[in-house]
Design goal:
With about 450 residues, this protein is an alpha+beta fold. The protein has three domains: about 170 residues, NADH Oxidase; about 140 residues, no CATH class; about 100 residues, Nonspecific Lipid-transfer Protein, Chain A (2-Layer Sandwich), CATH 3.30.1050.10. The protein is about 40% helix and about 15% strand. A hairpin with a 5-residue loop joins strand 4 and strand 5.
Length: about 450
């Protein structure tokens, strides 16, 4: 028990207690955020329906949460647009540091008023690494920002602010009380659907029909993050000697890895952000001279001589070879197949799916996992799309029953599928050729 005569107890009892407002004034809070250094603000109650998929996660980390404050920090456009990735990445890092610092200052001001507040503005790449293969972030800033009226998602899967365009970074602040007025989502989408992001993407990750190939973007743009970094480490470990390593990794790639380790992980492209003309502050040069805008912003990125990282046999490899023959293609692994659990495998399947490889397929699969991790799932590949559902739905052309540990080792190429079939750790019922079709859709 703490002694009632302890100096800290006596001092606290002597001081007058803070009486913070039960409801924070939205106008005051907005100005306080702007004074801290952010460029726009939106407010959202925790019970907002858009947060139905996020609420439990938020409360698990911040049980006091009642409201969220979405915050926008601007980036300098020309630094992002330049083909020099060092300049673009420096802007990403500095803008990220700036908004996190601003949110931190705001939290300190609220704390000094006796208000519980937390900075959930981790702008960097997801940091909950112990949950690799699952949701590695605490708060989904894009979902919060869209619900709080600070923009809409463009076809390039970036939030476009109505004024600043997509040249923004996002943060979120968690509050322990309501705000007097909440924001509303925009009633229009600032995205122009001009398809410049489609034209700029070096790996074809953005489809003209709105499809997004996560694997293609992740493999190249995030080459020096998470799975790509893990692939580089494997290359180091598996190399016989310096010469063997040098045949697999160029000196420039080694230096680039050093830069990422020393100064923050570097994006390889982000060209979709660079060319986007949306936003009131951004659009004028595009409207005045569309050809000039494309010649100055788009063409240099398309013409740049660079190494493009792709998974062998992927849609991205076919796209780069056909669309940008002057760019060097390098086949790598992205780590998406190295899933730590069956749950992660099922969750990640749509992200790794290559729809170009599924042309003409109309298959239904039933998966049953046994052993240390049990699960049942239905996978439907049809019309170049994939659907993953819980349980066994409909009639399957192929049923796969597998020991979960054996299946995960197979995905990591640590176990042979033929041996697993012989030992009946993996069993098939139906047309076995469908398993070959399945594998084509997930090259690794």
């Amino acid at each position: 028990m703490t002694s009632p005569l302890h100096p800290t107890v006596l001092e606290v009892q002597r001081q007058p207690r803070l009486s913070p407002p039960a409801i924070l004034d939205a106008q005051w809070l907005r100005q306080a955020a702007l004074d801290a250094g952010v460029d726009d603000v939106g407010f959202l109650p925790l019970e907002d329906p858009s947060l139905d998929g996020e609420r439990a996660e938020i409360l698990s980390h911040f049980p006091f949460a009642q409201s969220l404050v979405s915050l926008v920090g601007r980036m300098n456009r020309e630094n992002i647009r330049t083909p020099a990735r060092s300049l673009a990445n420096k802007e990403f890092h500095m803008a990220g540091d700036a908004i996190e610092h601003a949110v931190r200052l705001l939290v300190r001001r609220l704390e000094d008023m006796g208000i519980r507040a937390a900075n959930a503005a981790n702008v960097g790449f997801p940091m909950e690494a112990d949950r690799w293969g699952s949701k590695m972030w605490v708060v989904s800033h894009k979902i919060v920002a869209v619900a709080a009226g600070l923009g809409k998602m463009g076809i390039h899967r970036n939030v476009i602010h109505p004024k600043f365009g997509n040249f923004i970074l996002l943060g979120t602040l968690v509050l322990d009380r309501p705000v007097s007025a909440y924001s509303r989502p925009l009633d229009y989408n600032p995205c122009l659907e001009c398809k410049l992001c489609v034209a700029a993407c070096p790996v074809g990750a953005i489809g003209t029909d709105g499809h997004f190939n996560f694997s293609a973007c992740y493999t190249h743009n995030y080459r020096e993050f998470m799975g790509g970094f893990g692939d580089w480490v494997n290359t180091v470990v598996e190399s016989k000697n310096r010469r063997d390593y040098g045949q697999k990794v160029s000196p420039a790639e080694t230096v680039s890895q050093w830069q990422s380790l020393s100064f923050g992980a570097n994006y390889k492209a982000a060209y979709c952000l660079a060319v986007c003309p949306a936003g009131e502050d951004v659009i004028a040069p595009f409207l005045d001279d569309k050809k000039g805008f494309m010649d100055e912003v788009l063409r240099p990125l398309q013409a740049k001589l660079e190494t493009i990282y792709v998974v062998p046999g992927s849609d991205a490899e076919e796209y780069v070879t056909r669309r940008f023959p002057h760019k060097k293609v390098k086949r790598v692994s992205n780590g998406l197949s190295s899933q730590p659990s069956v749950k992660a495998f099922l969750r990640g399947m749509p992200l790794a799916f290559q729809r170009g490889r599924s042309l003409g397929m109309d298959h239904v699969y039933h998966f049953t996992f046994t052993g240390s991790e049990t699960a049942k799932a239905t996978v439907i590949i049809r019309d170049r799309r994939i659907s993953v559902q819980e349980g066994h739905q409909g009639q399957a052309g192929l049923a796969v029953t597998a020991d979960s540990e054996t299946w995960l080792k197979f995905l990591r190429k640590e176990a042979n599928l033929f041996a697993a079939l012989l030992t009946r750790k993996v069993r098939l019922k139906g047309n076995p050729k469908l398993l070959l079709d399945f594998g084509k859709c997930f090259p690794s």
